[in-house]
Amino acid sequence: MNKRSKRLQIVLDLAEKKKQQADQFLAASRQRVEQDKKTMLQLEQYMSEYHANYLGVNAEGCSGAQLHAQQAFMQKIQDAQNTQKQAMEQNRKELEVVEQHWKETYARLQGISKLTDKVRKQELQEQEKALQKQIDERSQNTRPAFI
User: Fold this and answer.
1) Under 8 Å between Cβ of 113 and 5
2) pLDDT (tens digit, 9 = 90+) per residue, 13-55?
3) Among 116, 119, 124, which Cα is nearest to 16's?
4) Cβ distance 25 to 102 under 8 Å?
5) What is the 3-state secondary structure (H, E, C) of 40-82?
6) How far apart are CA 142 and CA 121, in angstroms?
């Protein structure tokens, strides 16, 4: 029959695998949030540059078609920013969920690890106790040489 600690070791191994998966999910989620920030910054910089260019061209004068094309393009940039903001918010919410899952997975792993250590210590104490009992029994069964 398997010892309890061996059975718990299987549970501990599974918990470690789940924690590793949670680590990967957390890293991927954090990376998406960081990428969202970079993308938003690029869009803001692009909008700022294009807006400055738009003001410069208008000061010099341009045709109605050019003005309309520039306004339409700036609207596309604005739409991209709005879409990016929505994606950022969704990824932030996802990160919160993933972080909570990671915390729960980590806590579970710690609990199982402590339980496994406790069971191993108990088994070791039981083995030592049984060994001491055997030594005591053998020492009582040995006859002194003077008899």
Assistant:
1) no
2) 999 999 999 999 999 999 999 999 999 999 999 899 888 877 7
3) 116
4) yes
5) HHHHHHHHHHHHHHHHHHHHHCCCHHHHHHHHHHHHHHHHHHH
6) 32
